[in-house]
Amino acid sequence: MTQTDGYRALRDRIAPILAEAAEGVIERDHTRALPREAVAALASAGLGRARVPAADGGYGLTIPEFADVLVEIATVDANLPQVFRGHIAWVEEVLLRPASPWRDEWIGRLVAGEIIGNAWSESGSGALGTQQTVLGDTLTGKKYYSTGSIYADWIDVVAQRGDEQVGVLVPTAQDGVTVSDDWDGFGQRGTGTGTATFDAATVDAGSVAPVADRFGTQTALYQLVLLTVLAGIAAAAERDTAAALRSRSRVYSHGTADRASADPQLLQVVGEVSATAFAARAVVRDAAAAVAETLFGGSAVGDVDAIALAEIRTAQGQIALTDSVPRAATRLFDALGASGTSAATALDRHWRNARTVASHNPWVYKARIVGDWSVNGNVSDPLWAIGVATP
């Protein structure tokens, strides 16, 4: 990939941040500690304005460049790219809006390092296709899976306003907003994917718009971010397995070499993990190129066919990596044996994180959708919902 000035500049800025974040990643996983310092440092370094044009104070990265950076970050800590997932989508929403004082104001906020979280999903018994969170003069309701919101200055919330669903930006620095770190998943423990509660919260009225008017590639972009996380996990699994095997002095009497690092059977296992990491990176780059075709700076902005292809490519990537990355993250124990299961190394986090990420947006439905596209040329509506269906 050709490296632009903005790409090199951002990577240089975040390199020491990632080095520091790497030192505490195992301890954070053990204690479920949030990577607050790393998130704040990445925001200060400009990760949140990576896609903002250089002329407006950003780095001007392309989508493939940005995806590459996210994979690098995920290789250090798989939580970090997912924290910024809602922010990444909001940046594209701002960039795709026509020139206006509102757009200028939001670009200024992004350049200043403000972070946007996400609160679209709800738990409980709400009816399919509706929201229990309601927007009137203020916002009232409760959201779960509020990824990144515990770190954020703003939260992108989906709410019911009359008969339509709207997206609205809510400032977090107010009494009416409470974000809890009550996510209890066994993986991705540092994403802050917990509950956001809104009690007559004030909103940014200029940011209220029907969800249906959001840019068409939003769901594909959301999925692309998760693909970068999976690719980073695969790369980390390869790194950690190779390092552990390289440093091992003890061997089995029924092995095939006097050093573990020379045992061809163990090298085969590491080679399989490495191949998965390579393939995952290739999947990300191809999916990123498809998404780029539909976004700011792409060659087919707003083109329905390009949007449909981006949905298919990210779904294909999800199907492939949902199977291969968790498998690689457990295959590594075939090379390392029982000592590899030591809690001190936390190598199990790679599988736990991969399996958790892969459980977003169930791949079985995506496989059916891709099959329908392959056989019949059909593409489903990318704006899907979850809730209790009415018989």
Automatic annotation (TrEMBL):
<dbReference type="InterPro" id="IPR036250">
    <property type="entry name" value="AcylCo_DH-like_C"/>
</dbReference>
<protein>
    <submittedName>
        <fullName>Acyl-CoA dehydrogenase</fullName>
    </submittedName>
</protein>
<feature type="domain" description="Acyl-CoA dehydrogenase C-terminal">
    <location>
        <begin position="229"/>
        <end position="361"/>
    </location>
</feature>
<comment type="similarity">
    <text>Belongs to the HpaH/HsaA monooxygenase family.</text>
</comment>
<dbReference type="Pfam" id="PF02771">
    <property type="entry name" value="Acyl-CoA_dh_N"/>
</dbReference>
<dbReference type="InterPro" id="IPR009100">
    <property type="entry name" value="AcylCoA_DH/oxidase_NM_dom_sf"/>
</dbReference>
<dbReference type="Pfam" id="PF08028">
    <property type="entry name" value="Acyl-CoA_dh_2"/>
</dbReference>
<dbReference type="InterPro" id="IPR013786">
    <property type="entry name" value="AcylCoA_DH/ox_N"/>
</dbReference>
<dbReference type="InterPro" id="IPR050741">
    <property type="entry name" value="Acyl-CoA_dehydrogenase"/>
</dbReference>
<dbReference type="InterPro" id="IPR013107">
    <property type="entry name" value="Acyl-CoA_DH_C"/>
</dbReference>
<dbReference type="InterPro" id="IPR037069">
    <property type="entry name" value="AcylCoA_DH/ox_N_sf"/>
</dbReference>
<keyword id="KW-0560">Oxidoreductase</keyword>
<feature type="domain" description="Acyl-CoA dehydrogenase/oxidase N-terminal">
    <location>
        <begin position="6"/>
        <end position="114"/>
    </location>
</feature>
<dbReference type="InterPro" id="IPR046373">
    <property type="entry name" value="Acyl-CoA_Oxase/DH_mid-dom_sf"/>
</dbReference>
